[in-house]
Amino acid sequence: MSVTIVHIPVLIGVFLLPKRYAILLGLFFGIGSWIRSFTPMGPLDTAFQYPWISVLPRLLFAVAAVYIYQGLKALNGKFKNSDIYIFGAVVFVTSFGVYYGAKAISGFTGWDFNVLAPIALAIIGVFITLYFSFIRSEDKLKMLVPSTFIISTVVHTILVLTALVLFVPQSIIDLFGTTDLFGVVYSVAVTNGLVEALAAAVIGTPIVLALQVIKNKL
């Protein structure tokens, strides 16, 4: 399965728009996925012609993202050192994703994992450094932006995969060559899903912060 970042506009809307409009973005995202499925380019694209696979998970993703952001905000203000706990959780998830992403790349391309591992470690180091800068910022809410991007993106991956497994299991079996559907969900979630999460955080965070500055000046 390919890595996607087309869900990023929905997450940007979570930070900048009222809740109902952010959820509406998720609905439009799903409808767009449904329309695109009628010009399939990949082995699973035709499965998204079913709205309960293309639209429903994206709508639920938007709802989940809204409440993930609100939950992190509540957590950040309720507990002492909550920013450190959030930092630790996100770094753990990200490190996990980068590591298994490197393993997946090695498996798909045949590249030597011993070469990819130092690159993965460097990426993790850069991420931790940048993320720590948000922790040290006087505006603690800035830290919640990449956190929400990462957690919500993983949720998005799991929701879509679960819909595929529930409604078109044979397509998953044919594509991956295994009947271990739970294993497929887990494997894709810790490879594609976490790589997507990291990409979403890197791309989406500066966009959200810049737009918030503009919004505050209006």
Q: Globular, elongated, flat, extended or rod-shaped: what is the shape?
A: globular
Query: What helical percentage do the residues reach?
Result: over 70%
Q: Please tally the helical runs, counting DSSP H or I stretches of 4 or more residues.
A: 9
Q: State the separation between the terminal residues, measured CA to CA.
A: 42 Å
What count of domains describes the coordinates? 1
Order of helices and strands: HHHHHHHHH
Describe the structure.
The structure is a single chain. This protein is mainly α and 218 residues long. The chain has one domain. The chain is 80% helix and 0% strand. Helix 1 runs antiparallel to helix 2, helix 5 runs antiparallel to helix 6 and helix 5 packs across helix 9. The chain starts with 7 loop residues before the first helix and ends with a helix.
Short description:
This protein is an all-alpha fold and 218 residues long. Helix content is 80%, strand content 0%.
Keywords:
mainly alpha, 9 helices, 218 residues, single chain
Give the topology, please.
Elements: H1 8-16, H2 19-36, H3 51-54, H4 56-78, H5 82-109, H6 113-136, H7 144-167, H8 169-176, H9 181-217
Helix pairs in contact: 1-2, 1-4, 1-9, 2-4, 4-7, 5-6, 5-7, 5-9, 7-8, 7-9
